[in-house]
């Protein structure tokens, strides 16, 4: 018998309306977080950003806004917060919703927003050119914009949180880019376990600005449910913690793992159970799951003099810890080491521990200044890799970074969202 406490129920928007037995997001009172009445514009339901009453668990239970409900509440008597325990879902609202909508507006929207085909082709080339810079924690590499309809939520998340801020200034009007940066910066705060707990209110202000400007730039008819519901996202983070706590990304990733466990079409459930029990048995044999493993031994250096005196036991090209994988190849070799951004060139095991041989970027400056300075997110423009090889204990590594080429140098961004998801 397992006791558990229900924290939240994660659904996409149509499923949430169905499960709660309320009006769908196409209905006039379809926002499940506030009582804003929708406006039907250009054959779609839109939700202007007026000041309206926020729904609460009590107002839902007492059906204050009768037009929101389809019928009896299916969770009645179960003590479930019908507003607070149904957080908005950023995979659908942000990644598959607003990010895809923006890309579609720029790709095939009204002529005044549409980018010329030549620019789109250049953007596509730029995206595929970044494939080798993507860390192995991301299962998918960037694809061209011609395949935008097949982009998965993780690809749209990668575009929002890492690629977009770096490549878009070369292609978009400054106002449109800065508007995108309001979304990027607020979601970067809300996915971070530390920043979200301290700055969720600031993220809420930025998201409200993003939605207001969305209506001003793309027209009132663009304020559909997904765009409107961004203003409620920070309150869900206040209640439940960072966005990855209330996301279906782990669930979807797990489905991928389940799929890989099935090797033949017959008896899929039995196969999955068997593989799971095999994996659990193997995991139980590992005495310390936080230990690191060193892989791909070699003898080619570099080994700085300071390490040669520490009795080198071996050199490796790869180190796997429970946090991340370090490699000496592009995509997985950039880390924050003792406050600097460094490239790893060798992994050396000495008698007193594991050392990372690295070179540091000697130039580090702020990458963007709107809506705040990029150093707030530890994002920097970097250049001029020093010639000197330094060594640092493996435990001095603070963050794994994504490093993209940019205007003769690079932009370094720490992996913001949880890579376990
Ligand atoms: Zn609302």
Q: What would you note in describing this structure?
A:
- Residues 284-289 have low confidence and may be disordered.
- Helices cover 36% and strands 19% of the residues.
- The protein starts with 12 loop residues before the first helix and ends in a 7-residue tail after the last strand.
- The protein is α+β, with helices and mostly antiparallel strands and 421 residues long.
- The protein has three domains: 1-247, no CATH class; 251-285, no CATH class; 293-414, SH3 type barrels, CATH 2.30.30.
- The strands form two sheets. A six-stranded antiparallel barrel has the order 6-7-8-9-12-11.
- It is built from twelve helices and twelve strands.
- It has helices at 13-20, 57-61, 90-108, 117-129, 153-167, 174-191, 193-218, 225-228, 233-240, 249-261, 268-285, 305-308; strands spanning 39-41, 44-46, 293-298, 312-320, 325-327, 334-337, 340-350, 353-366, 380-385, 390-393, 397-406, 409-414.
- The relative contact order is 0.10.
- It is globular and about 75 Å long.
- Strand 6 and strand 7 form a beta hairpin.
- The chain binds zinc ion.
- Residues 31, 33-34, 36, 228, 232 line the site of zinc ion.
